[in-house]
Known about the structure:
The protein has 143 residues and is α+β, with helices and mostly antiparallel strands. It contains four helices and seven strands; from the N terminus they run βααβββαβαββ.
Amino acid sequence: MKIAAIKKTDFESLRNLYFTVRRRSFSWLDPSLFQLKDFDSDTKGEIILVAYDNDIPIGFISIWMKDNFIHHLYIDQHHQGKNIGTELLKAAIVQTHLPVTLKCLENNTNAIAFYLKKGFVARERGQSEHGEYILFELSKNIN
């Protein structure tokens, strides 16, 4: 696996990955809320790092640099649990500086467990159009 900045040729694969993983991960939401085109608008203006397996995109992280905010972290379902999310987080931290923050929907219990295991701390709660979220902060490097 390697991690690198997004390439123009990655967009179609990442649109599909983003669409598929969100529909699966956010099973409590109406699937019609998710569209293939969402990737482009939801990551506009962000730095995107991509995880590749044999030059095929298998995950990505996007960062809103101005606020050191991790906006998206998605891994193809067939590659989850293989340390790819951890490596993408490490790569994102190199691009920004600590602390970094992110929001995670309360119903996304697998993601919450992952972030807590990596050392993120819950700082506040809020409401979004998709439900309640937790704002997490990471102030130290991930091992």
